[in-house]
Structures are given as C-alpha cells and as structure tokens.
C-alpha cells in the first residue's frame, strides 16, 4: 500500500511517499515559495537521486500537479500510475475540540476544520487548501487528517482551562490545546519500546525542541499537560517566539511603541525568542557560534532556553507524581549535545545521571543516561510523517 503524506503550508508544501508494506520512503521533498517568485520543487527518490525543478508555481494546485508529474517521471519517478497511491494523509495543525484522533476527511470534516480555522489562522487555511487540491486532482483517493492537537486531548480541565471568564471558553473555545502532538506521541511510544516497558506504566516528559518547541507530560500513555496553549506561542523560548511572558507586557509595549495588535503579534511570534534575545539569529547553531565567540546576548539566550525547559521538566514531574524518562527530539533535541547536557545538569536530584560519552552524538536513537540512572534520558529522532502514514493506513483499511 502506497500512501502520500502532505504537510501544506501557506507558501510551501512538504511531502513523502511511503510504501507501507515496509514503511520505507519512496520519495520525499519540499515545494518552496508557492505564489512567490523563484519557486521550486526539491525531490529525492529512494535511490538517493536528488532533483531540483525551478518553475513558476503560482498555486498549491500547480505545485501538487508538478509533484505528481515528478513521481510519475520516467527519469526519476517511483510510480508507473497514479492509482498506485491508495490514500493521502494530511498534517493538520489545529483540530479544536472536535478531533481527538485522526479521521477520514469528508465534506463535514472540511466544514468543521473551516469553523476552527481562526484558532490557527496561519496554519489551518493552507492545510485545508492542500486537502481541497488533492480532492480535485485525485477525487477517488481517500484522505485522512492527522492533527497536531489530537494527542493532547486527554488533558484534564485543570490543565487546559485558563483563569479567564469561563464564557470565553464556551463561546470561542479559548483553552489550552497544545501542538506537536504527532511527534510527542511517536517518541513516547518509541521510548516505551526502547525501555522494554508498556507505555501505560510510564511517566515520560517528551521534549520536542526545534525552531518551535514544546514539552508534554505523558502519564500512563496519556497527556496530562503540555506547554503550548491556544496557539503555539505559549510555553518555551523558541526560535522567534517569546513563550511565557507577563500578559501585561503586551499593552505596555503597545502603548510605549504605538503598535497595533497585528504589529505586537508579529513581534511576539516572529521577532522574539532566541532571535530577539541574541540579536543574532533564530537558528540555535548560529546563536551557539556567537556565544562561543563571546557574544553576551547569545550566551544569555541559550541559558534562558535551557532554563525554561528545565523548569517545565520539574513542573511536569510534579504534575505526574514522578518521572521515568525524559525524551529529546526534533532539530535541537536530536542534535544539540551541549543543550541536552545543559538542560539535564542540575536534575540529578530527580535521579537523572547523564552519560557524557553516550550524549556525544547527533541524530541517533539512543539512551544517553548512565545504565544505573533511575530516570532514563533518551534521544529519539521524530518521524511525524510515518505516524501520519500509519494512521492513514489504519483508517483506510
């Protein structure tokens, strides 16, 4: 069974084509700058052949048409007929309260997604657009939506209700939803297998640390709390997002700088975080290089990033009544050796004993705590696309 996985953004589209008999990737890539000059398609097949196609890609429909042509290409394609693709799985950022699990997409689902689009105005509309284009181009193929928010829907009210007038929750759905759920769920399950225990018996803090970053407290297989909120802005310091701040800062700066709501929102989401503190970059690697060169702001940015993660680990350990494992994943979590050490340093009281030698690696699935460490620390590369493909296969079958 071959499944096409699509993650549609406003001006980009990531894709992977899976052979689900072996769970191998037949082709993968990215369409960039949709609707912008200089657009192109990046493509790599299962033989490692890489192709770059520079072409005017005015719309998502043009982009997906180009992708299908490339998959069918006699030169570097991996399909003889588009009917070999049996289903399409879509990453959808926000499912609101309506979707606590992956679902087969029909007209009623699309309508519900449009109704909650204002909860994720930057993400859901392009996600929906990808669904509609695939429906137009491949009308007979079943489509499945896999939601970033779904894994977190086991949170109790005490974790997801904000201390605001309750009517805002009832009227507008203002509550904590959480994101990166597909990643958190995948690495929690992998951690249980690596530790040779049942997920229902474990208390795990999963740390998805990338340009966007979030933590989740997974107790007995269910999320009891997570750091992102109504939007992906709350929680940790991120590449360009501020994370937790005093809400009163917002009107204070707006008044001082004479900013509109849109302008302050842009600052909080796109000009803050590592970029805002360091003044160097949103990429942690650039910030690390600057810190090594003696840039004080870069040093502080990294310290704040680690400190915020450490605080959340402590909070979630308290929320779960203990912790058995701490898992690092995503770009920073999988590759930043010093960051992992900086976060775990000082958590010895919890029973975490870092193995410095084991931690000296990047991008591999590995236990990085000492063999006698009471609490295990693990690095697990995430694979959200595979989760989407698996859910799609299960629902279609």
Detailed description of the structure:
It comes from Halanaerobium praevalens (strain ATCC 33744 / DSM 2228 / GSL). The record marks 180, 241 as: Transition state stabilizer. Its main location: cytoplasm. There is one protein chain. The protein is an alpha/beta fold and 397 residues long. It has 2 domains: 2-147, Nucleotidyltransferase, domain 5 (2-Layer Sandwich); 197-379, Nucleotidyltransferase, domain 5 (2-Layer Sandwich), CATH 3.30.420. It contains 15 helices and 14 strands. It has helices at residues 60-71, 107-115, 124-137, 157-160, 166-172, 181-194, 249-257, 261-270, 273-278, 284-292, 296-320, 330-335, 337-344, 356-359, 384-396; strands spanning 2-8, 13-19, 24-32, 40-45, 50-54, 85-92, 103-104, 143-147, 203-209, 213-219, 222-226, 325-329, 366-367, 376-379. It has an 8-stranded mixed β-sheet, sandwiched between helices. A hairpin with a 3-residue loop joins strand 9 (203-209) and strand 10 (213-219). The protein is globular. The termini are close together. The mean pLDDT is 94.
What's the pLDDT, averaged over the residues?
A: 94
Based on secondary structure, the structural category is alpha/beta
CATH class of the largest domain: Alpha Beta
Helix content: 25-40%
**Number of helical stretches of at least 4 residues:** 15
- The name of the CATH superfamily of the largest domain reads ATPase, nucleotide binding domain
- Computed CA radius of gyration, to the nearest angstrom: 21 Å
Number of domains: 2
Q: What is the total tally of β strands?
A: 14
State the major sheet. 8 strands, mixed
Fill in the CATH topology of the largest domain.
Nucleotidyltransferase, domain 5
How far the N terminus sits from the C terminus, by CA atoms, comes to 10 Å
Catalytic activity: acetate + ATP = acetyl phosphate + ADP
Subunit structure: Homodimer.
Family: Belongs to the acetokinase family.
InterPro entries: Ac/propionate_kinase (IPR004372), Aliphatic_acid_kin_short-chain (IPR000890), Aliphatic_acid_kinase_CS (IPR023865), ATPase_NBD (IPR043129)
